[in-house]
Structures are given as C-alpha cells and as structure tokens.
C-alpha cells in the first residue's frame, strides 16, 4: 500500500481551501491549508509535503516567491500553480520556475485530481530514479574497490580483445603502468 500523500493548499480564499480540502480528504490525502505566503513558507520549513497547490496571487506575496522558496528548501516537492487570472506569460513563468503544472480557476474536480495524481506519480518516479542512481554509484564504488584492491592480477578484455581495464597487479605483471594498459593493449 502506497503511503498517504500530504498536500499543502495555499490560497487566500478560505472557501476554496475548504472545498479543495474536502475533495482531497475524500480521496484519501492528508491536507493542510494556509492563506498567505508567509504561513506557507513557515510550514514548508517545518513539515514535509509531497505536493503544494499554490495560488499565483496571495495576500502577502506572489506565488512565484513561495515557489522559489519551495524549490530551494524542498526541491522534491511538486508544486501546482493555480490562478483565476491565467495568462500564457504567467503559465510560462510558473513552469520555467519549476512548477509541475498550472491550473486556471475555477477548475473541474476531476481535472484537479488527475493533475495531482500525475504530479505525485512524477514525484515517485523521480525519487525511484534517484535511488537507482545512488545504488548504481554505490555498486560501482564497491566494484572498483574490489577490482583494484584484490591481490590477484585482473584484467577486463572487450570483445575486440582490447584490455579496457587492468588492476595494478596485472599492470606490474605486464611490465606496464596501469594507465598505459587500460584501453591500449590488444590480446
């Protein structure tokens, strides 16, 4: 079972926040809402959220400023910008600044739910990719350590019979420096 996602709603319209919260709670999400950029930033610093629904124009600052803080403090968090005054320019800026998506208010509940689902899946896949990269780096480091620190002469020979890698013991046996052996000797 997938962990329950936590969503922060940032909008200066309390009724809209309540409506979105009710919808998302019915769908099984944990939610929290605030009505200003300052409150949002304070919460982002204290708590972890999977996704933020962020109004472009809030009481004390532009949503872009909050987006910049989120990107700096919590780059793994997905942000969906929302606005009642949509324009191509504001959408372009939001996406260029790292928002996952941009929705025009009022929006259909199903459209919002689909966008949230896609954003959370994107977040999950990015985290999975990052873990795979870290595992690969770790595996490569272990391989290099074993390969270069073994007491046995070890070489890796490619299909064209070129030595692509040799440890120091193998280079010593060949009477060559290790860097001269790798990629330069044909068997």
What would your notes on this structure say?
The chain is of the alpha/beta class and 187 residues long. The chain is built from 7 helices and 7 strands, in the order βαβαβαβαβαββαα. It has helices at 14-26, 37-46, 63-73, 88-96, 109-149, 168-174, 178-181; strands at 6-10, 30-34, 51-55, 78-83, 101-104, 155-157, 163-166. The strands form 2 sheets. Strands 2-1-3-4-5 form a 5-stranded parallel β-sheet, sandwiched between helices. It has a two-stranded antiparallel sheet with strand order 6-7. Strand 6 (155-157) and strand 7 (163-166) form a beta hairpin. Helix 2 runs parallel beside helix 3. The N and C termini lie far apart (53 Å). The model has no long low-confidence stretch (mean pLDDT 88).
Could you outline the blueprint of secondary structure elements for this entry?
Blueprint: E1 6-10, H1 14-26, E2 30-34, H2 37-46, E3 51-55, H3 63-73, E4 78-83, H4 88-96, E5 101-104, H5 109-149, E6 155-157, E7 163-166, H6 168-174, H7 178-181
Parallel strand pairs: 1-2, 1-3, 3-4, 4-5
Antiparallel strand pairs: 6-7
Helix pairs in contact: 2-3
Radius of gyration, Cα only, in angstroms? 26 Å
Fraction of residues in helices?
A: 40-55%
**Class computed from helices, strands and strand pairing:** alpha/beta
Mean pLDDT value = 88
Number of helices: 7
Strand ordering within the main sheet: 2-1-3-4-5
Shape, principal axes of CA atoms: elongated
- As a percent range, the share of strand residues is 15-25%
| Main sheet specs | 5 strands, parallel
